[in-house]
Design a protein that fits this description.
Serine Threonine Protein Phosphatase 5, Tetratricopeptide repeat, single chain, 76 residues, mainly alpha
């Protein structure tokens, strides 16, 4: 799903549906610092502040580990 907005238009992933590893699509977008994808698929707001992956990491942990400053600004 990284930087492939055309593909995402076709499959229309749900933001609250975890994959096999417990990560949600928002985590993959944050790892790539993919701001256009975040703007397209996710609404800005505190809804994702409590979401955690299989390592019990929040969106803030993932953004900090991957230096995703633009994406972090969008989420907050």
């Amino acid at each position: 799903m990284t930087r492939q907005i055309e593909l995402v238009d076709e499959i229309d992933p749900r933001p609250d549906c975890p994959d096999y590893f417990g990560a949600m699509p928002i985590f993959y977008s944050l790892q790539q610092d993919d701001l256009p994808m975040l703007q397209k698929q996710f609404k800005k707001g505190p809804l994702y502040f409590t979401v955690r992956n299989y390592k019990y990491e929040t969106v803030f942990h993932v953004a900090a580990k991957n230096n995703a400053l633009d994406s972090l600004k969008f989420i907050c």
